[in-house]
Write a structure and sequence with these properties.
The protein is mainly beta. It has 3 helices and 41 strands. It is elongated, with a radius of gyration of 47 Å. It starts with a helix and ends with a helix. Keywords: Disulfide bond, Immunoglobulin domain, Signal.
């Protein structure tokens, strides 16, 4: 009996459940039938589709004004990348987790405050009618550029490498990219290619080392205020240049030898004298006897000198030199730093109380893991070849006065001049057998009122009449003697109106200098023909011209 009752109850429950479920389903369908009742007017947006342009930090109102809303729920969505949508609002329920978005449920207007770049996009107001009712707005957010470099802050490469610097600049409107180099204009680099956000250096040299900056500008904020920088370090073998190839001095004097050293990684430097090592270790400061080796560092325009003890050798290193800070001490041709080698280090070897044993050849050796290089400097007591200072044209018909200057630690004791006719029928002729050689000894005496410090009229070898003197000085050695000497020599008995070519050399206590460069000079033109013919009879140079003609005739 109990069993029958139980089964009856279970059956009754099942019947009730079925009836309940059927009623719910019928009620759901009837709800939507009422919802989509053709007699009910669907919602209509009264706002029009718009495009808004705002800047960071501002506010904007997105209108979703509508009529006949009824029981419909307003849905607001925002389009995001990849075709997806972000649900912001459904009816009265806020889906976006930010306080910057607020919806006025009466006016159906969405306000966004403190605009961010991520707010940029498409906003859709939506009612779930069939078909759906939609209103779309466009929000454009303008913001200043943000710049990122996709390389490390310091990039090290070898010479000859292709380097590409990438700049990721974001902003709205799209920014204009500008590349620059702290050490100078990019146009001064041999090769570079700017392709929008890329800077390509196809074959870098060490001159390309420096700090490169990518700047972006889109008219918002300060001009090119957004930037990012990276350092490019180009590694290369050492390069050594002697600031002077010859340094002149004498006993008891003081001298300096300078070499400019560049290389990356920073080279180690040492000095040798006649192949004998002065600085056995690669050091910045070294002392030996009466010589000093020291390194002189320069930070910007401020010199910082590191001196060793007061002995003979002294070596300085001067860092990152500016061309204006390097002075000319001697007449030799010098190599000064330029923009391409401003990172050179200046190493200076000084000798105090010079002795003859200090003369010879000094070598500056620089070495790093990529190679080595050297530069040689000669220390000598010989005078410098004389440099012609006088005009090429004489104001005399039969004489010419030479004016030279030369560098010599000791007094100049002799001058040797050789010369001959420059041209024959328009042809330059210099034959060894036809040089006129004139030599004079300069004997020092007391200084005259005119400033002459030496005078002599002693033709040792050659023809003609010559007069020579030495006067004045531009600088003195440690003993107060002339170092720059001004010499004057007058040659007489020349032919008028002729062009000559010649050179000279000078002598001091250590010997003769090398020959000077050839120079041309001429006597005054315009002497009357009769006088010119009379003065030329029997002259040696006239005979030489005749010999030239005979030689040319024999050749043809």
């Amino acid at each position: 009996m109990m069993t029958s009752v139980t089964r009856s109850r279970r059956g009754t429950s099942l019947v009730c459940l079925i009836i309940l479920c059927r009623g719910l389903v019928l009620g759901y369908e009837e709800y939507y039938e009422d919802f989509y009742d053709s007699e009910t007017e669907p919602p209509v947006f009264t706002a029009r589709s718009q495009s808004f342009t705002v800047e960071l930090g501002q506010s904007v109102i997105i209108p979703c004004d509508a009529k006949n809303k009824g029981d419909y729920k307003l849905v607001i969505k925002k389009g995001v990348s990849g075709g997806y949508e972000q649900l912001l609002w459904v009816g009265r329920e806020k889906m976006a987790r930010t306080r910057r978005l607020q919806l006025d449920t009466q006016t159906l207007r969405l306000s966004i405050s403190q605009i961010r770049a991520t707010d940029d996009g498409t906003y859709v107001c939506y009612f779930g009618t069939n078909p759906p009712t939609k209103l779309q707005h466009k929000l454009v957010v303008h913001y200043p550029p943000v710049v990122l470099l996709s390389v490390s802050p310091e990039q090290r490469v070898r010479e000859g490498t292709r380097v590409t610097l990438n700049c990721d600049a974001r902003g709205n409107p799209e920014p204009i990219i500008h590349w620059s180099r702290l050490e100078g204009s990019l146009a001064k680099l041999q090769q570079h290619l700017q392709q929008h956000q890329q800077l390509v250096l196809p074959n870098v040299t060490h001159e390309a080392s420096g700090t490169y900056t990518c700047s972006a500008d889109n008219g918002l904020g300060l001009s090119f205020s957004a930037s990012a920088s990276a350092s490019l370090v180009v590694e290369y073998p050492p390069h050594v240049i002697a600031e002077q190839k010859t340094v002149r001095s004498g006993e008891g004097g003081y001298l300096e030898m300078v070499c400019l050293v560049s290389g990356e990684p920073k080279p180690r430097v040492r000095w040798t004298h006649d192949n004998q090592i002065i600085t056995p270790e690669f050091t910045d400061t070294f002392s030996k006897g009466h010589m000093k080796a020291r390194k002189h560092n320069m930070d910007s325009s401020e010199y910082k000198i590191h001196y060793s003890s007061s002995t003979k050798y002294n070596v300085d290193q001067y860092g990152t030199a500016n061309p204006s800070d390097i002075t000319t001490r001697h007449m030799d041709t010098k190599t000064h730093p330029t923009e391409s080698n401003i990172q050179d280090q200046r190493y200076i070897l000084t000798i105090e109380d010079v002795q003859e044993a200090d003369f010879g050849f000094y070598t500056c050796l620089a070495e790093n893991n990529l190679g080595k290089d050297t530069a040689t400097i000669q220390v000598t007591g010989f005078p410098h070849p004389p440099q012609i200072m006088s005009s090429s044209e004489s104001d005399k018909y039969h004489s010419y006065t030479f004016k030279w200057k030369t560098e010599s630690y000791y007094p100049v004791t002799e001058i040797m001049l050789k010369y001959q006719h420059k041209q024959l029928n328009g042809t330059v002729i210099m034959l060894d057998n036809f040089w006129e050689h004139l030599t004079t000894v300069i004997a020092p005496n007391n200084t005259s009122p005119s400033g002459i410090t030496g005078r002599a009229y002693v033709p040792v070898v050659g023809k003609g009449d010559i007069q020579a003197n030495e006067k004045g000085n531009e600088k003195a050695n440690s003993s107060g003697q002339n170092v720059i000497h001004h010499l004057t020599l007058t040659v007489n008995n020349l032919e008028s109106g002729l062009d000559y070519i010649g050179n000279a050399k000078v002598k001091n206590r250590y010997g003769w200098s090398a020959d000077s460069e050839f120079f041309t000079f001429s006597t005054k033109k315009g002497l009357p023909m009769a006088i010119q013919h009379a003065t030329s009879i029997g002259s040696t140079l006239h005979k030489n011209v005749v010999i030239y003609i005979i030689v040319l005739l024999l050749k043809f």
